[in-house]
Amino acid sequence: MKRFYIILFSSLFILSCNKFDDEINTNPNLPSEASGTQLIASAQLSLPGLSSSPKGAFMAQYLAETQYVGQSLYPQESTSFYSLYQSPLINLQTVIDSEDLNGNDGPVANQKAVAKILKAYFFWNITDRWGDVPYFDALQGGDNYTPVYDSQEEIYNDLFEELKEAGDMIVSGNINNDIVYGGDMSKWEKLANTVRMLMALRLSEVDPQKGSAEFNAAISAGVFESNSDNLVYQHLADANNQNYWFDQVVNQNREWWALTETLVEEMKPVNDPRLAVYGDPTRSTGEYIGLEFGVEEVTGTETEEFSLLGSDIYEQDAPVYLVTYAQVLFAMAEATERGWITGDVEEYYNMAIEVSIEQWTGTTEGVEDFLDNPEIAFDANNAIESISNQRWVHLYMFGYEAWSEWRRTGYPNDLVEPNGMAVPTRLSYPDNEAFNNEDNYYEAIERQFGGEDSIYGKVWWDQ
Questions:
Q1: In terms of DSSP H, where are the helices of 149-274?
Q2: Residue 300 domain-assigned (yes or no)
Q3: Is residue 216 part of a domain?
Q4: Can you give the pLDDT at residue 156?
Q5: Is there a cis peptide before residue 412, judged by omega within 30 degrees of 0?
Q6: How far apart, in whole angstroms, are the C-alpha atoms of residue 357 and residue 371?
Q7: What does the alpha-carbon distance between residue 123 and residue 131 come to, in Å, rounded to a whole number?
Q8: Partners of 134 in beta bridges
């Protein structure tokens, strides 16, 4: 694996350099262009960035800043999506459009299917954060520098079709250079259907009829069946591909993040076994103590009074969980409660928690006792709240996904408003768009938000 990363980074570096026609300047031992599967692998390197973000953690109020509190006070500021278009998405689009992929790296149909699935997954994350974004006209390079912003509803409809088409394209045979699933196409097919399922649940408040139809179609096509199916980005114990938080906490010696009081008070009273993974006990008392989100002037030795980010989370090779089986089970519990599917809501709920604990701790020991706790036991009278609160606990560190579920369901309903600032409901567009794509930018914010690119505008499904 380590050798592969070295080769991959080397080939991508070559691609970024000027090409020399003179043979004397050409090294015959290095590739002059990346293969389809290398481009896919390059896009996969961007996956952990969807999750590993202090800002995402602040949106879901998992972490509180201990020293520089500004970002957790929800300032009105732009957030760029350019890097996602310029790196993973353009690489994936190149694979999709290519007419001469090398079949020696695996069936061409499978290479294109994986590229489609990943492209859909990246775009799902993008549109859920910003709302309407360039989609149909995007990724055309010099042919179109000013793409139109498409409505989120249109993007969702097309992503459903793209994911279905990708699943139908898959044929027998694995692909090379796959640093996520090792080329196993059965896993990719399940991922496509699982993403469809989770996207469908987003429509619960805006278009439940379509949401139900897409949800059931995804289940019929085959979704995750165990934690072994999870979309996980596994970092390496190597500086070339290490966990983001390792660089922040260990390399840069930053004790900037503590568990929030909200999170600790949700987990500590019920002896949640995941808490020992999520954070470390305080150095002063050995207890778990959360920091109030957005509180100012916590500096220096005061960090010893709070539970900081868990050492398991910032290990150099710590994994990043992106799409998980527990999410599937929580979704099935909610869909059953909504009447979209048949089943036992409580059974799905209990299974989801058990699977989550296994994912985070590596064991299910003590789960039965945990589920018997009155504060954890399923509450049929408040089913959506029970499901949503435990889903929030499970999604720890994938703050943007937890934030999307909070926007959709309203749970947990005890997130705080630092300095009176409510949790934002979207990210504002990059400032550059007012200059780089002026007409389309202003048309998009006028259409969605009445002309103001506010972090309190609402995306299509959050109405």
A1: 152-169, 185-201, 208-221, 244-246, 261-267
A2: no
A3: yes
A4: 98
A5: yes
A6: 11
A7: 11
A8: 149
Task: Read off the tokens for 294.
Answer: 């957005």
Q: How many CB atoms lie within 10 A of CB 18?
A: 5
Radius of gyration of the chain (CA): 22
* Burial category of 442 from C-beta neighbours within 10 Å (exposed 0-12, middle 13-18, buried 19 and up): middle
**DSSP assignment of 40-98:** HHHHHTTGGGGT--HHHHHHHT-EEESS--GGGG----B---HHHIIIIIHHHHHHHH-
Site of tokens 């999307």: 404
What pLDDT is recorded for position 31?
47
Query: Exposure of 90 by Cβ count < 10 A (0-12 exposed, 13-18 middle, 19+ buried)?
Result: middle
Q: Residue range 304-323: average pLDDT?
A: 96
Domain assignment of residue 7, yes or no:
no
At 103, list the tokens.
């079949």
Domains in the chain, number:
1
Assess if residue 421 is contained within a domain: no
User: DSSP string covering 95-129, please?
Assistant: HHH-S---GGGS-HHHHHHHHHHHHHHHHHHHHHH
Distance of alpha carbon 308 from the chain centroid: 22
Q: Of 71, 57, 74, 67, which is closest to residue 279 (Cα–Cα)?
A: 57
At residue 418, the 3 state secondary structure works out as helix
Distance CA 457, CA 445 (A): 9
State the Cα torsion 186-190-192-193 to the nearest 10°.
Answer: 140
Min mean pLDDT across 6-10, 91-95, 419-423 is at 6-10
What are the tokens at 329? 């089970």
Q: What is the domain-level CATH number for residue 155?
A: 1.25.40.390
Task: Measure the CA–CA gap between 233 and 41, rounded to whole angstroms.
Answer: 12
Q: How far apart are CA 392 and CA 60, in angstroms?
A: 8
Question: What local confidence, expressed as pLDDT, does residue 34 receive?
Answer: 77
Q: Which domain holds residue 180?
A: 101-223+429-456
